[in-house]
């Protein structure tokens, strides 16, 4: 039986589900079965995003967000066979033929008929990157395809290779956090949100925020695999993500995760947690921040970001099992800490107190400043 508290085992399960923006059904169906095993109901919003609710007692919700899609392609025309790129894959990686698999039906099972094919060139479309395609059998317009890469493999060093670490690893982490909450009866309200079409503009997250599906007081944590950077190294632990390429996130969310990290280290000094502004891309925390939510992120440092491998090849993405496991521990501890989260930021309180104490002294010298400035 699958151990849902083990994020590596869950990731191995999800990695076998081909996915693309607008074609996330296989991942969604598998997540629904896993939530059924946990006894947690799944709400499907008007756009196919999944919302799971663990009600353990704390008044203020903690929402964990990850997206179900990954860069891929979609067939546009059949004669000649052309498509469009869905997501930000570097075009230099498409300069030579790239093997792909076309999924002929949008169904939830993994036994769909597949057709082998290739990307044999690209061109500038109207608002999109067009692809010249070949297929070994007929495919219809609207069919999606994925890079013909391994579903999942772990090497001797604990590196987890897969076609779509971003963001199936984030989805796996959410499942494991929810499983821990259920098993340990953690007194918190934890929401798992699995979104669609992130890779083409944060679409699912933006629609959830616009619908106000999450209570306004929710603290939103975006889980992402993000390009490894100095200070956010693969194998050195999950990363408290204080911002992305577009924005900095909420100090309150940062405080929650730092406190969770410190409690983990008090119990086990070997726990590895990093903290960094991950500027390699924009994540779903930004969409929620723009809608007025308190946000922060947790990132798993990623190799071969968006399948851009060495020498401009298409290659599997990879993360480290230790980083994935550390992220789950961090978020479980954060869920426990929600009940103790202060209503106001301690740093803001400290600055306000110091300002109030020093204000009379500044006011007492104001007249000298006015006189000095009037002499000019």
Short summary:
The chain is α+β, with helices and mostly antiparallel strands and 376 residues long. It has helices spanning 7-14, 25-38, 165-184, 203-211, 251-267, 284-290, 321-337, 346-364, 366-374; strands at 42-44, 50-55, 61-67, 72-78, 81-86, 98-103, 114-124, 129-135, 144-147, 152-154, 159-162, 189-195, 219-227, 238-243, 273-277, 294-302, 317-320.
Structure notes:
- The longest helix has 20 residues.
- Strand 14, helix 5 and strand 15 form a beta-alpha-beta unit.
- The chain is an alpha+beta fold and 376 residues long.
- It has nine helices and 17 strands.
- 32% of the residues lie in helices and 28% in strands.
- Helix 2 packs parallel to helix 3 and helix 3 packs across helix 7.
- The radius of gyration is 23 Å and the shape is globular.
- The strands form three sheets. It has an eight-stranded mixed β-sheet, sandwiched between helices.
- The model has no long low-confidence stretch (mean pLDDT 94).
């Amino acid at each position: 039986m699958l151990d849902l508290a083990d994020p590596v085992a869950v990731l191995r399960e999800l990695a076998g589900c081909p996915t693309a923006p607008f074609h996330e059904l296989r991942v969604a169906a598998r997540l629904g079965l896993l939530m059924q095993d946990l006894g947690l109901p799944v709400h499907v919003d008007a756009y196919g995003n999944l919302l799971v609710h663990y009600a353990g007692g704390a008044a203020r919700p903690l929402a964990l967000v990850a997206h179900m899609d990954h860069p891929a392609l979609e067939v546009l025309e059949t004669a000649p066979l052309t498509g469009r790129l869905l997501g930000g894959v570097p075009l230099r990686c498409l300069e030579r033929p790239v093997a792909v698999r076309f999924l002929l039906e949008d169904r939830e099972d993994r036994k769909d008929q597949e057709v082998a094919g290739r990307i044999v060139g690209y061109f500038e479309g109207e608002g999109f990157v067009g692809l010249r395609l070949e297929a070994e059998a007929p495919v219809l317009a609207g069919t999606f395809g994925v890079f013909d890469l391994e579903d999942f493999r772990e090497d001797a060093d604990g590196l987890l290779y897969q076609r779509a670490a971003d963001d199936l690893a984030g989805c796996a982490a959410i499942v494991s956090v929810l499983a821990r909450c259920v098993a340990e009866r953690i007194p918190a309200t934890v929401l798992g949100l699995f979104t669609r079409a992130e890779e083409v503009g944060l679409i699912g997250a933006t629609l959830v925020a616009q619908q106000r599906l999450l209570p306004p007081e929710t603290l939103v944590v975006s889980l992402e695999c993000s390009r490894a950077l100095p200070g956010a190294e693969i194998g050195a632990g999950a990363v408290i993500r204080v911002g992305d390429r577009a924005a900095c996130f909420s100090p309150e969310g940062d405080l929650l995760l730092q406190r969770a990290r410190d409690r983990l280290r008090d119990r086990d000094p070997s726990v590895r947690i990093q903290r960094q502004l991950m500027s390699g891309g924009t994540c779903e925390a930004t969409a929620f921040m723009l809608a007025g939510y308190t946000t922060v992120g947790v990132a798993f440092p990623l190799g071969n970001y968006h399948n851009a491998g060495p020498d401009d090849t298409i290659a599997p993405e990879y993360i480290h099992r230790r980083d994935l496991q550390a992220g789950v521990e961090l978020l479980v501890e954060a869920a426990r800490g929600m009940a103790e989260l202060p209503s106001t930021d301690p740093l803001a309180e400290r600055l306000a107190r110091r300002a109030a104490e020093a204000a009379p002294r500044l006011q007492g010298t104001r007249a000298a400043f006015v006189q000095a400035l009037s002499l000019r």
